[in-house]
Input
Amino acid sequence: MIDPRRLRVLRALADHGTVTAAAAALHLTPSAVSQQLAALESEAGHPLLLRKGRRVSLTPAGELLVTHAHVVAAELERAQATLDALADGTAGRVGVAAFASAITQVVAPALAALKERSIELSVRDAEGHESVRLLLDGEIDVAITEEHRTTDRFTRFPLYTEPFDVVLPPGHVLNGGPVELRQLADEDWVVTLPGNPLRDVVETACAQAGFTPRIRHTSDDFRAIEALVAAGAGVALAPRNAVGGVPVAGVAPLRRVVAAVRRGSEDHPLIRAVLDELRS
Output
């Protein structure tokens, strides 16, 4: 019989790629993780891991078992939610991670309303890709992120959609009206760091306009991006709620923002209450 607790260890290894990183996510020692994985291989009766130095990859049997592990995890989440609903749990704490403008737009108003119902939010400021990792690792209950960052291990609830605007230095010749992105082909650019999904949006939008942005400065903090642009360091493309700017002419890139929860947990009474308040 396969121990479902060991499936959680295998999922963490698949998510993080090394025994050390998986151990950190699970708050275990690397030795304990290695022992759990060895025991799981014995239970499964198949080799699950390929070891290459410090990194570990999954065998076909390991990848198949991870797929089943996702299903088992979702059912366990659903079972816990059902039990909590049976107990009519209506008070407690829910962990939420969101990027700064989403905290302003939806999390802070929801926090005030939920507090009156004895539901407390524990809020973490995290970019969309970081909140997804926190949700996968079980460190939070709800991640507010971009729609395309989610996986089939999550259930998504749409919150809002916002366009990207062009951010220009004071006195720029294009200030005051809609801007065609191709007009910015010769400008220096301020963008988010590699790995941030918003950088992909900017690079794709520029490519569709026929050029590659000349990136001079990077930051994941939109206040810093706004300050750099104001200082004449370049131009930027940013979500409207993060930084005020000039509209893009024609069809602007969009950020679709969702609340994501681990599949199966959406029926938990506390999480359901938080999702309802965030959406309202």
